[in-house]
Amino acid sequence: MAEMLDPRLNPYRKDIAAAHLHGKVEAARFVEGDVCEVIEPIADMRRDPAHEAALDTQALKGERVTVYETSEEGWAWGQIESDGYVGYLSANALGPVGLKPTHRVCVPRTFGFPAANIKLPPMIALPMGAGIAIARTTDTFAIDGYGWHYPLGHVAPLSAKHNDFVAVAEMFAGVPYLWGGKSSLGIDCSGLVQLAMNAAGHPCPRDTYMQERALGSPVALGDLRRGDLVFWKGHVAIARDAGTLLHANAHHMMVASEPAAEAIARIKAAGSEVTSVKRV
């Protein structure tokens, strides 16, 4: 039974599993889990409880994580609420659930200043997608419960949606490639798609194979247009127009824009064909 459930999206191991999976998987014990909040700007989620383990994804400040186990070594095993991803995070990156975020960072990165003075050293630097509970605003700042001041144009209400997810992705041009990354400090191909689509109000899973299954409708490669997603096994690119792709990739080691024909030929020469084009 367990083989039918993806362990990246279903919290189960041989020794422990989420209570809601009772009867669906085999485990020594089942637990309800405790909901926590990400309190660091970025929390790495790793495949195993070790700092040298593979980085699978990242959780951002304000996100909720259901924790099913915390080890003596300080690793929390849990599931991110927003996209369902399961893995290990540092317990130090998590805290009790606070006020529900009202706003989300809508630029690649912003600072929270201790007062209404941008010459002061910032208290925190937050990535796009991080959630903040804003208590009040002025003409120039959004202020949270700690009194930290964020430039007003750098945050947006959770209900606000960008009207062009491709334009969001274009903000990340030149950002270094990082497997599992999901911020302007480092990002991978599916992280770029997820971050941009979420900013535009489109729920989006984390990994390329999940995105290829869940997003959009198939179209012909010859009919490529802005906003289409081009998939290979383990890779995805965003069409900027009929002849240009934008993607975080290991060839350029950054988010780069290039002619679609060149990218497709290069990836084909490395042994991978386009598997689908999806219009969202």
* Count of alpha and pi helical runs: 4
The portion of residues forming beta strands comes to: 35-45%
Mean pLDDT: 97
Question: How does the major sheet shape up?
Answer: 6 strands, antiparallel
- Bulk shape: globular
Please give the alpha-carbon distance between the first and last residues.
33 Å
Strand order of the largest sheet: 20-25-21-22-23-24
Radius of gyration: 20 Å
* Backbone structural class: mainly beta
Topology as H/E string? EEEEEEEEEEEEEEEEEHEEHHEEEEEHE
How many DSSP E strands? 25
The residue ranges in which pLDDT falls below 50 over 5 or more consecutive positions are none
Helix share bin: 10-25%
Describe the structure in brief.
This protein is mainly beta and 280 residues long. It has helices spanning 165-170, 189-199, 208-214, 260-269; strands at 17-18, 30-31, 34-38, 42-46, 55-60, 64-70, 75-80, 86-90, 94-95, 103-105, 109-112, 124-127, 131-132, 134-137, 141-144, 149-151, 155-157, 182-183, 186-187, 217-218, 229-232, 235-241, 244-249, 254-259, 276-279. The longest helix is centred in the C-terminal third of the chain and has 11 residues, at 189-199.
